[in-house]
Write a structure and sequence with these properties.
The protein is α/β, with parallel strands linked by helices and 356 residues long. The chain is built from nine helices and 15 strands. A hairpin with a 2-residue loop joins strand 1 and strand 2.
């Protein structure tokens, strides 16, 4: 968990500090006050581009120095931080206990998961959004997953560039080396995703019926053993060159989600049911991670309570109580009346954070 969070020149926060408890942190305030900015800062303490997937330069405070900093002290005393310098606004710097480290190493220190209003359409969005969601779930169980994904994608980008630029003049040995690298990292990537889906499916199957409907999960689309992928890549060079992209591999899978009780694809469920399904998946996964690793993930729930009826809202608070650190935002403090009394309640206004 995060014991202390510090934001410097991040979005509309010039200098904000939060000493956080182990349970709930509730951020209330008007739209545009800077609540989601706090959650975005927290999401940068994990590998990836954060919950908004914004460019780094957009995160720096206007009329600031051009860079920004996000730093946290964890419960075990380890300090982690990330940010940019004014002279290099698109170059991310990551440090653990003051030592520069790759962003992928953050997963070894902290698991961070989030739900935002933009994810309400996850089940009807293109498959890439669900892959990204699955990778975030997988990362919490397999901290090396981000490294495998980054290496696979880097090799694939190089292969696509060579096929697009070189035509028949491309060195086949160079292509073969890149394809071997894709197979090496792609096999691990695929196995970790499938292990996550299997474990989470078993967890969901054992959840008692409550306010959140249970989901069935499956991986659809591409499927193949490493030797098959190697043959597909080598034999598909002309096809991939014509398409401008690689058409076989674990980057082509989709996460299929079904409403179990209705035996209905999640994409066909009502908007409210889709949100409830998504919350049910997140809650089951958080419990799975806590049991497997002994370290509950930090949950970031942006405006989630506002879109739940009172029954589901209180059911959500009950499921989350005592299960790790949860950061929640909302425009109205009354939405959090069911949160435990020991929660830290903060008012956010114009980039300022004050206790309620």
């Amino acid at each position: 968990m995060i014991a202390r969070l510090s934001l410097t020149d991040f979005r509309n926060h010039a200098d904000s500090v939060i000493a956080a408890p182990s349970g709930f942190v509730v951020l209330a305030g008007d739209n545009g006050a800077g609540k989601t900015n706090v959650l975005e800062a927290l999401s940068l303490l994990a590998p990836g581009r954060g919950l908004r997937r914004a460019s780094l330069s957009d995160m720096a405070r206007q009329r600031g120095g051009g860079g920004f900093g996000v730093a946290a002290t964890l419960a075990d005393g380890v300090t982690i931080g990330t940010g940019t310098l004014g002279q290099a606004p698109e170059r991310r710097v990551v440090r653990v206990d003051g030592v520069a480290t790759p962003a992928t190493a953050l997963a070894e220190r902290l698991s961070v998961l989030w739900l935002t209003p933009a994810m309400d359409r996850l089940f009807v969005e293109p498959a890439g959004e669900r892959r990204r969601f699955l990778d975030r779930l997988t990362l919490a169980l397999a901290p090396g997953h981000a490294h495998q994904a980054a290496r696979y994608e880097a090799a694939m980008r190089q292969r696509n560039r060579l096929l697009g630029e070189g035509g028949s003049d491309v060195d086949p040995d160079w292509l073969a080396a890149l394809e071997a690298r894709m197979v090496e990292h792609g096999a691990v990537l695929d196995a970790e995703r499938r292990a996550t889906v299997a474990a989470l499916s078993a967890r969901l199957a054992g959840v008692e019926d409550d306010a959140f409907p249970r989901a069935d999960l499956a991986i659809e689309g591409w499927e193949g053993a490493p030797d098959q992928l190697l043959r597909d890549l080598a034999g598909g060079r002309a096809r991939d060159a014509a398409a401008g992209r690689t058409l076989a591999g674990p980057h082509r899978i989709d996460l299929a989600v079904t409403h179990r009780e209705k035996d209905q694809p999640a994409a066909l469920a009502s908007t409210g049911e889709q949100k409830a399904l998504l919350l049910g998946i997140l809650l089951a996964h958080a419990e799975l991670v806590a049991d497997r690793t002994g370290r509950p993930p930090v949950l970031l729930l942006d405006e989630v309570a506002a879109h739940l009826d009172p029954l589901r809202r209180h059911a959500l608070f009950d499921r989350l109580a005592g299960r790790g650190q949860v950061w929640m935002t909302g425009t109205e403090a009354r939405l959090f009346d069911g949160v435990p009394d020991d929660a830290l309640r903060l008012e956010v206004s114009g980039g300022r954070i004050d206790p309620r």
